[in-house]
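Human: I'm a chemist; would you kindly supply sequence and structure tokens for a protein?

Assistant:
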Amino acid sequence: MKNETLVYLTSSDWQALGEIAIRKFFATGEIIIAEGYSLRSIFILRRGYVQVEREYQGKGIALSQLGVGAVFGEMSLLEQQDGASASVIAASEVEVDVIEELSLRSLLNSLPGFSSRFYQSLAVTLSQRLRAVSEQLSQRNDQSHRPTRTGNISERQIPPILVDDVEKFKKTMTQIEQQVRSRQITSIQAQTQTYNACTQLMDSLSKHSQGESLIDSAWSNLLAFRDLDQVESGIGDYVFRELFPLMMQSTTIAHCYTRPRGLVDGYETNQLIYANEAEGDGWIGEFIDSWFLATQFCQNRRQGRQELVQLLQHYGQQPSTSILSLTSGAALELLDVLPKIPSLHVTLICQDLIALHKTRQAAEKLGCAKRMTLIQNDLLLLAKGQEKLTLPPQQFIYSFGLLDYLTDEQLILVLQWISTQLADQGTVLLTNISPEHPDRLLIKHILEWSPYYRTSSELAEFLLLAGLEPITPPDVKTIGISWVMGRKESK
């Protein structure tokens, strides 16, 4: 028997372990190992699935799910720690072989070569886990990096008309603030004026960031000539610096700004966009927030979620359907669907622990928490094989917005991993921000996001590279979002 945890053990070693093992049975939901409880045994999973969980604010959040052949509990023996670092709970009816410490140590001392093979296997496991943690930390450092916003343009290259428009905008916003404070205008009037001022400024930024205007800016200072991409970035840098104090008074913009490229949208960010209730600081923050929530960027999120709900309802009504959601934050679309389809079971994989916790709380209020499996894990590490997860074959896998943050290489890895999780004839649905998105400049220069833009045709080509057959997606109307669907053909 080959095993990824005890990789160097021979068939004779496994036979010897089987002779000293005690077979135990656990019902669904029964605790096999309790977090914090000292238990000196190794467990080998013979039938069913188990979840590895850690407690967060009184509730268990799964870190992984293991299948037949998995070994757990081995680190407790190696570290001689006081209590288990996580709980292991039966996710189905389970059979395990339990090898107690005294029996194992007797075997380590009596079977020639077994001791060296056993500890060498554990050393490899520790090395793999350390490598995964190191990569995760490195990835987070890369994600949190923001580029410097200087040196891309000279003062002479900034379009004078844009400078005038920026100064006019700041003057208008100051005037609105003064009038609101002195109650010279109503909130509705202030909102209308703020909306018009913000829209006009973004129109000016768009006009001067492309076409002949951009070329004119590049040639306006030959001693400081830059290519067009750098000049466009420089124009955005200027607008960003001038508007930052005003825009950050918007609660939603401020939350978006904390999520640079590589970080999947946070729970609070999506909650603010979906709620569509303006909030902000100061006298005008709420009005700027209301303008932002009305942009195509935010409308896309809300409309896309509604279209996703309809698709989930369609696929979820098929017999014995299991749905896997990838890095979908609070997964509000699932909470809309799950109570309506009693036979549906869903699994969520997300790094955002707060989002998973909030989702569990919401599911408990709706009475459907038992049909929802929440797993905190890094999808890229799973795709690279550096984290282990065993799931039953899934009929439907989806993610809304995940691809925005993936390079082409990462995208292929994730799609290949998805293919291994799909049942035969299973379906995958994914979205990506479109190159035609009308708010690209807002996304880049105000929110400081740098997503990867792709068309539906480009996404279909990636599906083929991962061995998935593209199928015709539904007729969705969301502007600025590319949708793609694929199917895993039967072997």
Observations:
- The mean pLDDT is 86.
- Residues 262 and 413 are 16 Å apart (CA to CA).
